[in-house]
Each structure stands twice: as structure tokens, then as C-alpha cells.
């Protein structure tokens, strides 16, 4: 028998399978996904590889074919279904097979299991008593103490009992030699969820919740595994619906994965699941240690848990009978990976579910255009929750035209209307959230005389001005001192104009000295758990106002917040990508959704320099469908996803001239192979960030309605650059339907 093996070397030229003979004694132990050591290259160095297929015959001279050396020690095999998923990801998103395998391979290597030592009594109680009086006679107090405990319970924890009784290892050994006890090592899985499944009262579902659950259950009973979009306003009870759906799946012996954006993976979220599913819930996230992560995979594989909660990568949890993948906040940009293969968790979840025979539930208050368009086309089933579960009203939203403020002589970042409302809430002892989608003290530094902007010499992005006189690059961390004279024209009128969260915080403290203010942005949440500390301080009403970036608008429940101010609604509109309006709409809706989740109705104020823009207008009315119609017109006019597909070819090199030449040839080649007249080619252009860590970047964009056409072009380009030496110093990456975070 022969095995097809992918070697663990990331190199385009080695991106194919190699054939090896399977030694007779390994035939039984080997499966697709097994990790093995094989001799490779001139010197037959042992390399790790993965089995991706088997064959009775080999395509080369059987005399010359080498044999697999052994199974790889300390490495973890990959589930066969996940190997299939990896192959799909490679085809759909580009990159090599080994890169795809490593993406679905959740742990790098076997981790040392955590061990617990147990002391086990091996003699009968009667015989133990004889020994006890023997030790007492000989005045061997420690031995007697230990034996007394063992006579009460047959098994005790070694570490715990020796510490408690002050008994040394020698004493234990002495009793072991007399065959009174044995010491046994038990491996235990690390468990990152420290909680008890306290259980909770069952709730009565609203009619809309019941209907969504009924449709899902009816399909599930008929083994009709589908993709659903649960579209429901914030607070409409989507999480409760997910949990009931998971209950359905678990009751027939299957498991569920719950994807949530990493930032939303809070203690409260996990506890809601623990209350329902007890200790059969686990989590995955980047804060877990390698050992903890490894153990969660093993627990999933061995059937010890039913529900795995985690960000994007939890999608690859090796459950044996996966029945459901829930993807909460499916519109979030973090579901797109920025590493090769640049997969989107939504499509990849749907493919995994297809392979496993499972269902997918996407959930959002502001669905991605992809998901809602999918419902309109009939590929996904729409489940709707239109009302809040606890009969709260949606927030009242008003839009303030900041251009008028300027005309009226108000140069502050806070409009008169918002200021008045803040005073009002402070008086009523209600809480306020102020949202700004920027960070840093005061944005970028520019010259009022000539327009010069201070940029990072390595990354070609503007440096941010931080308090303390530093200017910092957000990509590479480069720092320099704030300058007071323009290096381009010598003018002293150089300064920062755009406000950052720090500046807003200071302004608020000055204007409202009686208010307690908390700030949450990347700077204040760098430390472990600082994020949760700020949130719980605000939830405990230790402050009146929370100022922050995107982070504060995502899914937190603060019942006492009755006013939300969006200080600069337009900032995200100026970002140079086609999803800018969609992102702005979603942010504004989420911000508004933060107001009034308790008994008092809430209010949101959106400040804008473009109040007539449809994404601001529709967000103010919380009218998703109107936004969808408008935005789809723009997407189809321009041929942007989801009405067509967009493939970015990113080219990266340290040699700028070579890169330009390469981009030119690649464009000619792409034109030639994509002879389809409907294929549109754009670029080459410098992407938003043209240079990162001294590497130059260029991008070509291809548009076509049919994803398969783009895949075919991608495959041809991959072959072309493999044989063309000129591209050996240019890295090529593909990005399908890009998402800018
Ligand atoms: P979403 O996920 O859509 O934001 P949640 O599931 O978090 O909504 O529900 C919002 C709040 O309403 C939660 O506190 C939840 O426990 C509560 N809730 C949801 N459904 C019901 C219901 N049928 N009866 C009572 N409370 C509910
Ligand atoms: Zn200048
Ligand atoms: Zn930089």
C-alpha cells in the first residue's frame, strides 16, 4: 500500500503530494490525517508530513519509492473531515495545502498531560486497623495519621492530603512498600471554564422565538441540514434561541460549535451557556495556554464536552458528531482571517457543515450583505425576531448636523444638543456612553500651511500623536518625538486636529467635572483582563460616562445606560474600501442598541458632517432593509460583493522596482488566461497600506460574477509563478472578497 503525503514545508514548489510506501506493520495504525516522519530530499532528512490519501498502486517506479519512517512522535493527527475541509480552503482561498492543514490543525504538538496523583488503599479495613495499632504502638505518628484518613476513604488526592496532614513522601513510600497503599497517576484535562452548572429557570419563549425554534427543529428531525440567518434586533433573544437549538442537537448525541467575536467572549457570555449545559461547555481563545488549548481539543475529540465556544478558529474543533455551528454577530470583520489561507469563517462553516451533515445558524442584528442577499436568493432560510424579548423599546435616535454647530460658533466635538442631554442624564444619575471610532490622543499630525502629514518611514501610514509627546506607528510600533516645525515648509503651524478618545476623555472631564469618566480603547486595554475590569466597573456604576472606541458598542448590556453619543459618525465612511458604508451602518445600529436596555427608554445622538448619507439616515431609523436596498444598488453597479466576487492578488517584495515589474507581468498574464470578457481587471494599485515593515505591497483586483472563474485564474497564476524564476522574490497572496478590519 502507498500513502500520499503532504510534507511540512511551506514552499510553493513543494505544494503537492509525495508518494511513500506504507510499511506492513503500520498499515493498521495509519489513517487520512495521520502525522508521519518520512525521508525527504537529497540527504533523506526526516521530515514531518500528513497523510492525505492512500493508493494500491504508485505512479512511480516501485523500486525507487521510499517508505514511511514512523508515526511522528508527539504530534496530533487531523480528523479526516478536517483534511477535506483544508483541501476546500486551499482551493477557495489560495495558499499551499500545508498552510491549509495547519489552519485546521488546532494544536501544534502534543502537550504534556496534567497529572494528578492519587493514593489508593489496597488493604481491607480490618487489616488496615491492625496496621494502625502497630504504627501507634511504635509511635509512628505520621504513618498513623495517613492511615486513619485512608481507612475513612479509599482514595485521596496525594498533594492535598500530604499537605493537609504534614506527611512526607517517605512516609507514603513506607506504606507503599508494606503494600498498604499504591500511588496512582491519573491524567486530568485542564479546564479553563471555572464554573458550576447551577442550572436556571426555564424561560417562556416569545412567539417569534418559538417560531424560529420550531422551524429549526422540524428541519432537524427530518435530517434537513440547512443554513439559517437569525436576524433579530439587539436584545431580541437570539442567544436564547441558539441555546434551544443546541439543546435539540445535543439531545440526539451531537455537538455544537458557537462562534463569537473574540471580544465578546466574556465571562457573562460563557456563564449563560454553562447554566444550561453545565460542565459540558468549553471555550477556546488566544488567552489559553498551549496546554489548555490542547486539552480542550482532546476533550472535544473524546466526547467529554458538547459545546465549544470560541472565536474564528474554534470552527475547527474536532467533534466526532458535529451537528450545529452557530455564528453570532456574523457580520463582524474579525471572522475573516488575515493569514493565508485568508478564509471567511462564514463560508468555511457552511462547507464544514456540508461535509459533516450539520446545520449552520448565522445570527445578527445587522446582517452582512452576503447573508441577507443569501436569504433573498433562497440559499439561506431567514428566521426573524423583530421585537425585544423583555418588552423594551428601541432607542430614539436623532442626527445632529455638525456643520450647523460650526456655523453657530460651537467648535467643540460635542454638539449643543448632546451636551444638554449629557447634563440631563448626569442629573438623573443615569449612565452615558460616548463612542468615537479612533484611538490615540489626537489622531495624526499635519501642517496647516502646506498639508504635510507626518508618516512612519517604514509603513507609509500617518503616525498617531499620543500623550507625552510621542508619535507612534500603529503597524510597526515605530516612535518619534512630536515635532513643532514642519519639516517640509518650516511653518510652525503643525498640529493635530482630529480628536482621539484620550482627548474626548479630557474634554468631558473638564466640561463635566462632577462626572466619573472611564475610557476604553486599545491603550487602556493592553493588559490582561483590563477590558473586563473597565466593563465591570462601568456596570457597577462606578462611573457615569464611558468613552471609547468600537469596543464599547459590541454587545454589552448596561441597563442604566440611557444615552449613547456617536461623536464622529463619518470617520468610518472615509475608509477606502467598498464595505465602508456597511460598517458604518452596523456600528451606528449597535451604538444605538446600547441605549435603554433597562426599564428606562434610551436615546442615541449621532453627530455627523454628512447627515444626508443613506447609511446614517437608515441607521437613525434602524431600517436595515432600506439600507440593504440602497447598498446593494451600489454593489451591483460597481460589481462588488455580494453581487459579484472580487479577488485581490497581493504582491509583496522588498524590491520596489522588481515588484512593479512583477505586477505588470502578472496583469498581462491574468488578462491572457482570464479571456472571459466579463472578467474585470483593476490595478495594480498600492493598497491602503503600501509598505509594512520595509516590504512593499501592490495589489491587483479581479472581478467576476462567478467565483469559479476567479478560482481558475488563481490556479493558473499559482502554476505560472511556480515555474517563473522572476517571481521567486515576490510573495503572492490571494484574498477573495476582502474584508478590511
Ligand atoms: P440577543 O442575543 O438577541 O441580544 P439575548 O438572548 O441576550 O438577546 O436576550 C436579551 C435579554 O433578554 C437577556 O437577558 C435574555 O436572558 C432575555 N430574554 C431572552 N428571551 C427571553 C424570554 N423569552 N423571556 C424572558 N427573557 C428573555
Ligand atoms: Zn508645512
Ligand atoms: Zn511603521
From TrEMBL:
Alphabetized, the UniProt keywords read:
ATP-binding, DNA replication, DNA-binding, Helicase, Hydrolase, Isomerase, Metal-binding, Nucleotide-binding, Primosome, Zinc
- The entry marks the following residues as binding Zn(2+) 1, namely 447, 450, 486, 489
Write out the catalysed reaction: Couples ATP hydrolysis with the unwinding of duplex DNA by translocating in the 3'-5' direction; ATP + H2O = ADP + phosphate + H(+)
List the InterPro entries hit by this protein, alphabetically.
DEAD/DEAH_box_helicase_dom, Helicase_ATP-bd, Helicase_C-like, P-loop_NTPase, PriA, PriA_3primeBD, PriA_3primeBD_sf, PriA_C
EC number(s) from the headed UniProt entry? 5.6.2.4
The terms under GO molecular function for this entry are:
3'-5' DNA helicase activity; ATP binding; ATP hydrolysis activity; DNA binding; zinc ion binding
**What Gene3D superfamilies does the record tag this protein with?**
P-loop containing nucleotide triphosphate hydrolases, PriA, 3(prime) DNA-binding domain
Q: Which residues form the Helicase C-terminal domain?
A: 478-635
Cofactor annotation remark: Binds 2 zinc ions per subunit.
* GO CC aspect terms: primosome complex
Role summary:
Initiates the restart of stalled replication forks, which reloads the replicative helicase on sites other than the origin of replication. Recognizes and binds to abandoned replication forks and remodels them to uncover a helicase loading site. Promotes assembly of the primosome at these replication forks.
Q: Which family does it belong to?
A: Belongs to the helicase family. PriA subfamily.
Q: How does it assemble?
A: Component of the replication restart primosome.
What is this protein's record name? Replication restart protein PriA
Protein species of origin: Sellimonas intestinalis
Which lineage? Bacteria, Bacillati, Bacillota, Clostridia, Lachnospirales
Q: By which gene is this protein encoded?
A: priA
Amino acid at each position: 500500500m502507498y500513502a500520499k503525503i503532504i510534507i511540512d514545508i511551506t514552499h510553493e514548489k513543494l505544494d503537492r503530494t509525495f508518494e511513500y510506501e506504507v510499511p506492513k506493520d503500520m498499515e493498521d495504525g495509519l489513517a487520512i490525517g495521520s502525522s508521519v516522519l518520512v525521508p525527504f530530499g537529497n540527504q533523506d532528512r526526516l521530515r514531518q508530513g500528513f497523510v492525505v490519501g492512500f493508493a494500491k498502486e504508485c505512479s512511480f517506479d516501485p523500486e525507487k519509492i521510499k517508505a514511511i519512517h514512523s508515526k511522528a512522535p508527539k504530534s496530533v493527527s487531523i480528523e479526516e473531515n478536517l483534511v477535506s475541509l483544508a483541501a476546500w480552503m486551499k482551493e477557495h482561498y489560495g495558499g499551499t495545502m500545508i498552510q491549509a492543514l495547519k489552519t485546521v490543525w488546532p494544536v501544534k504538538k502534543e502537550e504534556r498531560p496534567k497529572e494528578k496523583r492519587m493514593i489508593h488503599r489496597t488493604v481491607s479495613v480490618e487489616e488496615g486497623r491492625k496496621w494502625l495499632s502497630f504504627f501507634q504502638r511504635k509511635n509512628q505518628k505520621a504513618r498513623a495519621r495517613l492511615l486513619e484518613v485512608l481507612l475513612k476513604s479509599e482514595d485521596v488526592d496525594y498533594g492535598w492530603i500530604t499537605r493537609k496532614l504534614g506527611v512526607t513522601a517517605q512516609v507514603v513510600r513506607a506504606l507503599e512498600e508494606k503494600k498498604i497503599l499504591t500511588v496512582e497517576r491519573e491524567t486530568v484535562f485542564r479546564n479553563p471554564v471555572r464554573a458550576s452548572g447551577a442550572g436556571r429557570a426555564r424561560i417562556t419563549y416569545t412567539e417569534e422565538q418559538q417560531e424560529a425554534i420550531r422551524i429549526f427543529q422540524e428541519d432537524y428531525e427530518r435530517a434537513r441540514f440547512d443554513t439559517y440567518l437569525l436576524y433579530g434586533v439587539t436584545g431580541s433573544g437570539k442567544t436564547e434561541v441558539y441555546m434551544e437549538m443546541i439543546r435539540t442537537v445535543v439531545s440526539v448525541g451531537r455537538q455544537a460549535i458557537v462562534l463569537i467575536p473574540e471580544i465578546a467572549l466574556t465571562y457573562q457570555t460563557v456563564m449563560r451557556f454553562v447554566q444550561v449545559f453545565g460542565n459540558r461547555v468549553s471555550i477556546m481563545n488566544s488567552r489559553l495556554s498551549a496546554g489548555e488549548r490542547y486539552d480542550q481539543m482532546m476533550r472535544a475529540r473524546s466526547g467529554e464536552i458538547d459545546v465549544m465556544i470560541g472565536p474564528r478558529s474554534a470552527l475547527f474543533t474536532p467533534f466526532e458528531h458535529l451537528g450545529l455551528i452557530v455564528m453570532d454577530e456574523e457580520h463582524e470583520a474579525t471572522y475573516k482571517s488575515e493569514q493565508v489561507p485568508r478564509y471567511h469563517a462564514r463560508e468555511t462553516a457552511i462547507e464544514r457543515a456540508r461535509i459533516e451533515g450539520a446545520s449552520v445558524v448565522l445570527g445578527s442584528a445587522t446582517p452582512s450583505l452576503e447573508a441577507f442577499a443569501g436569504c433573498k436568493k433562497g440559499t439561506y432560510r431567514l428566521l426573524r425576531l423583530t421585537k425585544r424579548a423583555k418588552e423594551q423599546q428601541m432607542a430614539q435616535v436623532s442626527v445632529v448636523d455638525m456643520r450647523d454647530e460650526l456655523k453657530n460658533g460651537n467648535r467643540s466635538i460635542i454638539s449643543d444638543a448632546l451636551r444638554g442631554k449629557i447634563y440631563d442624564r448626569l442629573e438623573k444619575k443615569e449612565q452615558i456612553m460616548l463612542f468615537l471610532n479612533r484611538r490615540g490622543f489626537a489622531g495624526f499630525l499635519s501642517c496647516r500651511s502646506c498639508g504635510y502629514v507626518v508618516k512612519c518611514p517604514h509603513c507609509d501610514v500617518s503616525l498617531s500623536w499620543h500623550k507625552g509627546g510621542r508619535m507612534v506607528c500603529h503597524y510597526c510600533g515605530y516612535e518619534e518625538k512630536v515635532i513643532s516645525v514642519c519639516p517640509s515648509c518650516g511653518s510652525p503651524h503643525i498640529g493635530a486636529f482630529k480628536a482621539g478618545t484620550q482627548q474626548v476623555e479630557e474634554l468631558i472631564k473638564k466640561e463635566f467635572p462632577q462626572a466619573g469618566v472611564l475610557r476604553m480603547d486599545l491603550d487602556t486595554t493592553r493588559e490582561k483582563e483590563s477590558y473586563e475590569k473597565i466593563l465591570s466597573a462601568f456596570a457597577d456604576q462606578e462611573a457615569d460616562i464611558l468613552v471609547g472606541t468600537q469596543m464599547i458598542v459590541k454587545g454589552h448590556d448596561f441597563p442604566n445606560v440611557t444615552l449613547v453619543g456617536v461623536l464622529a459618525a463619518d470617520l468610518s465612511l472615509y475608509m477606502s474600501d467598498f464595505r465602508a458604508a456597511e460598517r458604518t451602518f452596523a456600528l451606528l445600529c449597535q451604538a444605538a442598541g446600547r441605549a435603554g436596555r433597562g426599564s428606562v427608554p434610551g436615546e442615541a445622538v449621532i453627530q455627523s458632517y454628512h447627515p444626508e448619507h443613506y447609511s446614517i439616515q437608515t441607521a437613525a431609523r434602524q431600517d436595515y432593509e432600506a439600507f440593504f436596498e440602497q447598498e446593494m444598488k451600489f454593489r451591483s453597479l460597481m460589481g462588488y460583493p455580494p453581487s459579484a466576487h472580487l479577488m485581490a492578488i497581493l504582491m509583496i517584495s522588498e524590491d520596489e522596482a522588481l515588484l512593479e515589474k512583477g505586477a505588470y507581468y502578472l496583469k498581462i498574464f491574468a488578462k491572457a488566461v482570464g479571456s472571459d470578457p466579463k472578467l474585470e481587471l483593476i490595478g495594480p494599485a498600492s493598497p491602503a497600506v503600501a509598505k509594512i515593515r520595509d516590504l512593499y505591497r501592490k495589489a491587483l483586483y479581479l472581478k467576476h460574477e462567478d467565483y469559479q472563474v476567479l478560482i481558475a485564474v488563481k490556479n493558473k497564476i499559482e502554476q505560472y509563478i511556480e515555474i517563473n524564476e522572476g517571481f521567486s522574490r515576490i510573495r503572492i497572496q490571494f484574498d477573495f472578497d476582502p474584508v478590511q478590519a
